[in-house]
Amino acid sequence: MKLIHCADLHLDARMESSLPREKARERRLEILRTFTRMVERASEERVDAILLCGDVFDAKTISARARNCVLDAILQHPKITFYYLQGNHDQNSFLNELEELPENLKTFGSGWTTYEQGEVSITGAELSDQTADRILDRLFLDMSGIHIVMLHGTAAEYGGKEQGGFSLRKLRNRNIDYLALGHIHSFRRERLDDRGVWSYCGCLEGRGFDECGEKGYVLLEVQDGKVKSTFVPFAGRILHEITVDISGLMIQEEIQRRIQEAVEEIPRKDMVKIVLTGEVSPEAEKDTVWIEKWLEDDYYFLRVKDETRLAICPEDYQYDISLKGEFVRLVLAARLSKEEKEQILRLGIRALAGEE
After folding, report:
1. Which residues pair with 223 in a beta bridge?
2. Using an 8 Å Cβ cutoff, are 252 and 264 in contact?
């Protein structure tokens, strides 16, 4: 028996705070297509069930395209059972539109619900801040059989104050073979107890640079009374955050070559955030706008963030009688934060050099 564990698709997420409007629109469609590709792959590989562990949608209001696409994927694959446990973002936005549920769509509520599929029992409950740990006390599973439990929330040893936080300690020694979780957007798998494991599958696609790296789903294979879990990378595009130390570099061409070396292995279809670090002379040629323009055609989307520090020593300007020396001394003596001084010095020295 095969099952897919996925979560946190966040279909219809706006993403306009991290991407230009047109790119955000394209990414919404791409993520929707990644979901349908996953279902098609499941059909090809004779997967019996797909566990949707919350946040399939991003908000209460969703587009007709996203709603109809998900519903069509379910209806067109009647041999796959879809177990849909809502997360904190779902808010009934999909189910409210249905007069009746398709036969192969199973849902959960605020109490434990169990479904039997072949030799596997699939149990889930939709958590709230008020009920999370109280529900765990009411979970009872037989020692026999194979038990998969679905939850959406933040797992911690003793629970927590985070939204949907729950205690792993309360789920130990309850005959769970695989605890399928949603809410955290990176893959993670650890032992729950001597019998089972718990796992976040992560999201199917990264939406911003806080979701870098491989994204995908977990394939579960049940055989001989055991559950084997394998992470399957599946994202159409990967987001990368690359740190480039440009300490001591003075001219734009040197900086560009250092950046080029750092990103040359990244596929052109991916999305890249370059973070410049190190100590740099205030007189160095460093133009992040030009760097973005230089690389923008090499990747689907690229952003450059400047986190360098000014390599400036007050003693170097102590006896400098030039306008620049006077300017530097005034700024360094001002009652400003270090960050404010660096910004003023950077802009001021470039202006004195005729670059602004």
Report:
1. 226
2. no
Which residues, 6 or more positions from 145, have their beta carbon under 8 angstroms from its beta carbon? 119, 120, 121
Tell me what pLDDT residue 319 has: 67
pLDDT, tens digit (0-9, with 9 covering 90-100), for 55-87: 999 887 788 899 999 999 999 999 999 999 998
> What's the pLDDT score for residue 327?
83
The whole-model pTM stands at 0.87
* Residue 289 burial (10 A CB sphere; 0-12, 13-18, 19+): exposed
Cβ-based neighbour number of residue 44 at 10 Å = 8
Core vs surface per residue 117-156: b (16+ CB within 10 A) or e? beebbbbbbbbeeebbbebbeebebeeeebbbbbbbbbbe
Q: Which residues contact 113 (CB under 8 A, 6 or more apart)?
A: 107, 123, 124, 125
Residue 356 pLDDT exceeds 70: no
Kindly report the CA angle at 120 between 119 and 122, in degrees rounded to 5?
155
Task: Pull the structure tokens for residue 337.
Answer: 């934060």
Which candidate, 182, 239, 250, places its Cα nearest to that of 209? 239
Exposure pattern of 200-212 as b/e (b: 16+ CB <10 Å)?
bbbbbbbbbbebb
CA torsion 330-336-338-344 (nearest 10°) is -60
Q: Which two tokens stand for residue 336?
A: 């400003």
Query: How confident is the prediction for the chain on average, in pLDDT?
Result: 90
- Of the candidates 57, 54, 38, the one whose C-alpha atom is nearest the C-alpha of residue 150 is 54
81-130: pLDDT as tens digits: 999 999 888 876 677 777 889 999 999 998 999 999 999 999 999 987 66
Going from the C-alpha of 197 to that of each of 120, 152, 183, 193, the distances in angstroms are 16, 16, 17, 7
Secondary structure letter of residue 93 according to DSSP: T
Altogether, the residues listed in the chain come to a count of 356
